[in-house]
Design a protein that fits this description.
single chain, mainly alpha, two-stranded antiparallel sheet, 12 helices, 8 strands, 41% helix, disordered C terminus
Length: 391
């Protein structure tokens, strides 16, 4: 059915190819009623369980101080899920089922296994780490194993890149620099929002990432292995890893505010207290002042910083539509001076025009001059962009 058009019914005996844009839409349409029924049954049984689902990867979240109570709740929820999936014509892959416990305990940590054999499942023994959607979790959320895995993966890629050239032949240092920034560095920093946020302990992560970038800088320059990191980073044109993380972290803080209003992250960042008290209220507005002081993470940084900078920013505001912008409302105040670089003595003529324009505007106290320069040099792979204002 599409709008008012209804096609005749027909049998579907062909599946959707992997990677197809239709696959997540069909899976969401099929699984939404299942998740709705499952949450309703949990609510009727007073089971404090949260559900997350990413296509065919489901996740049950239970919070409790007792392992026995947590295992009992997970056992009950797993049984309900298995029966419900059978009624939908689906099955649970027991071999892919895992259990993982988070704990802040500093002593011995030996959680009991979860026995699902009475309902046809396996005996789940908790592991030291847990991988979900490419992120590697440990029980204290230090993400040391996560950074170890992806830093080693980036180092392996840098080692393979040595086949492309060395200090005497092959690709140039500029091409090596570009290759490292585009291919290896994004792998090493995958999921950095999990562990790089305000007041987070990052000494171990910086140590591992500096080792990775040191190897890359030595490969780019063909330098000695005993060369100091700061020096070869500067010569290779690489930003120190901490400053690079600060840059991309600040940029990523804006991403949640570009999402639609019904997105789950927008719901989490909602600062308004919930109108109805509910155990499923997970937005920041439902937290007490003491809980907000203890809450740390990338989303908290986005909430605390950007709400103060852009309190009423709306990307769909009428002021941003054509016809209502500043350049449209005050078109007589803007002038665009275009030139032709093919003209003889272009640089000299252009410099004289700009000098006359600056002198004319600087004498007017009501004028503001904004000069921008965005140029790409031919000899190095970099771009320069500066803005200068004169009142």
């Amino acid at each position: 059915m599409w709008n008012e058009f209804l096609s005749p019914s027909f049998m579907v005996d062909v599946g959707v190819g992997q990677g197809s844009a239709l696959s997540p839409i069909l899976s969401a349409l099929y699984l939404s009623p299942l998740i709705y029924i499952l949450e309703k049954r949990f609510k009727n049984l007073n089971l404090p369980i949260s559900i997350l689902s990413f296509v065919d990867n489901g996740l049950f979240i239970v919070q409790n101080n007792s392992f026995s109570i947590s295992n009992a709740q997970l056992f009950c929820s797993y049984n309900i899920l298995s029966n419900l999936l059978n009624s939908f014509g689906l099955i649970v892959e027991h071999t892919k089922t895992e259990i993982f416990h988070f704990s802040r305990s500093h002593g011995p940590f030996n959680p009991p296994p979860l026995d699902l054999s009475p309902i046809g499942g396996p005996i789940l023994r908790p592991k030291d780490s847990w991988r979900y959607l490419g992120f590697i979790f440990d029980r204290k959320l230090t993400f040391h194993k996560h950074i170890d895995f992806y830093a080693n993966k980036a180092i392996s890629m840098v080692k393979c890149m040595k086949l492309l050239g060395n200090s005497t032949r092959g690709i140039t240092p500029i091409q090596k620099h570009l290759l490292y920034r585009c291919c290896a560095l994004p792998i090493a920093l995958y999921g950095f929002q999990l562990w790089f946020y305000n007041k987070a302990p990052t000494s171990y992560h910086m140590k591992i990432l500096n080792k990775m970038q040191r190897r890359a800088a030595i490969w780019i320059l063909g330098a000695f292995k005993s060369s100091p990191l700061e020096g070869i980073e500067a010569i290779a044109g690489l930003i120190p890893i901490r400053f690079h993380l600060q840059k991309i972290s600040k940029r990523s803080l804006i991403c949640p505010f570009k999402l639609p209003t019904n997105h789950i992250l927008k719901n989490l960042l909602n600062d308004d207290p919930p109108s109805v008290k509910s155990s499923n209220s997970h937005n920041i507005g439902s937290l007490t002042n003491h809980q907000k002081s203890l809450f740390k993470g990338h989303l908290n940084d986005a909430h605390s910083k950007l709400l103060g900078i852009f309190p009423s920013f709306s990307p769909c505001d009428p002021e941003f539509s054509p016809g209502n912008r500043i350049v449209d409302s005050f078109s007589n105040r803007f002038s665009f001076n275009l030139t032709n670089k093919k003209v003889e003595n272009y640089n000299k003529t252009r410099s004289q025009e700009l000098d006359e324009m600056v002198l004319c505007l600087s004498s007017d106290p009501q004028a503001a001059l904004v000069v921008t320069d965005a140029s790409i040099r031919n000899d190095i792979a970099t771009s320069i962009s500066h803005i200068h204002s004169y009142n």
